[in-house]
User: Fold this.
Amino acid sequence: MPDVRNCRRCGKIFTYTGGMQICHICKEQDEIDFRKVKEYLYNHPGATMSEVSSALEISVERIKGYLREGRLEIVGDMGNLILECESCGKAIRSGRFCDECSRGLASEMQLTAKDMTDMSKTGQQPNAKGVGMRYLNKDVRK
Ligand SMILES: [Zn+2]
Ligand SMILES: [Zn+2]
Assistant:
């Protein structure tokens, strides 16, 4: 049974073969648009995202998508073409998070794993309150 899905861009049904969920026609168009953007940036260093978008009639979202996928990287004078870190909003060149946040996310994940181990350990230990109570009772008896 072929894996048939709807193209996320044009809505047509196509046989999904992996990667982005778009049909081969849209994929081809995407490739052409991507090359156009790259070429435009090469010829117009320092162009802003909206300039590229209106000159090529490609939506800003699509251009941002190329940057997010890491296919297009902002180099040199293309400083106006910026993405924001999805976590702190800092300007980044490609991807989804700035260096700091991707490091932070990694350590946060480690912390969560550690917390979970600690919690399961604590669950097996005798109740601290119970120990205190026993101690208190002994004092009273003296
Ligand atoms: Zn399509
Ligand atoms: Zn960040």
Remarks:
- The first strand starts at residue 4 and ends at 6.
- The chain has a mean pLDDT of 78.
- Strands lie at 4-6, 13-15, 83-84, 91-92.
